[in-house]
Design goal:
- The protein is 38% helix and 14% strand.
- The protein has six helices and seven strands; from the N terminus they run E-H-E-H-E-H-E-H-E-E-H-H-E.
- Helix 2 (60-78) links the parallel strand 2 and strand 3 (81-84).
- Helix 1 packs antiparallel against helix 5 (185-192).
- It is globular, with a radius of gyration of 18 Å.
- It comes from Teichococcus vastitatis.
């Protein structure tokens, strides 16, 4: 990676999450030349693989292998790198070594932005747990005393964007960013097609993208067919308001 290349980091609980909720942002920024790295905490083998478990003779290890292959294919379509932690799902529980690795990734990738889950989701506790983990690692990555080097720590923490949960009203999700993903919608849909274990969600997230596109167009006054909604966690410091 060149010293001037911008980057983005996506911290996701399960394989499908980064596709449904942030696939457009990933594809768009990859196309703009950003390095985009996805950290996938689990394979979603227990609770996020309904289609896979309908296959006769399915086992946990076979399901994990299938979901890994799907997620790798989706990440490739979107133009991103992906690293798996295999922390398990339902429930998601990471180890100290996994946290340490995520902190290292923050410092290595030096993301310009972080995409992760909403801080609340009463329907899926893995999602806010992944969000909490992403934020904890972001904080520790700034600590001068964590793995100090001879040159000190120069890492600056980036803005964190919560991507849209499945049922936003129940999660207190109030978007303040709508990203125009119209030009990369084909890539996002192709990434959908890499996840047959969750085919039942394809149409739902197609409709969600159309709805956000309509809202984005009305708020911006510019044509937008497909959009993704995000809510920032921290205030933006600016020199002028507009």
């Amino acid at each position: 990676m060149s010293g001037t290349q911008k980057s983005g980091l996506v911290v996701t609980a399960h394989p499908g999450d980064f596709v449904w909720r942030a696939g457009g942002a990933i594809a768009l920024h990859a196309r703009l030349g950003y390095r985009v790295k996805i950290v996938c905490m689990s394979y979603g083998e227990r609770g996020e693989s309904q289609g896979a478990w309908k296959q006769p003779g399915m086992t946990l290890e076979a399901c994990k292998a299938a979901r890994r292959a799907e997620a790798e294919a989706a990440a490739e379509v979107l133009g991103a790198e992906i690293e798996f932690f295999d922390a398990g799902d339902y429930p998601l529980r990471i180890t100290d070594a996994m946290m340490d690795r995520l902190i290292d990734i923050y410092r290595e990738v030096r993301p310009s932005f972080v995409l992760t889950h909403a801080v609340a989701d009463p329907y899926n506790v893995d999602h806010p747990e992944a969000s909490r983990i992403a934020q904890e690692a972001r904080i520790i990555a700034q600590a001068a005393g964590h793995k100090p080097g001879p040159g000190g720590v120069s890492y600056a923490a980036p803005q964190v964007f919560q991507f849209e949960p499945h049922q936003p009203e129940q999660c207190g999700f109030k978007p303040n960013r709508i990203l125009n993903i119209t030009e990369v919608w084909d890539a996002k849909w192709k990434a959908f097609e890499q996840l047959p274990a969750q085919k039942h969600l394809w149409d739902y997230y197609h409709r969600a993208a159309l709805n956000r596109g309509m809202q984005g167009g009305r708020n911006s006054g510019k044509p937008m067919t497909y959009g993704e909604a995000y809510q920032t966690i921290f205030p933006d410091a600016v020199e002028v308001l507009a």
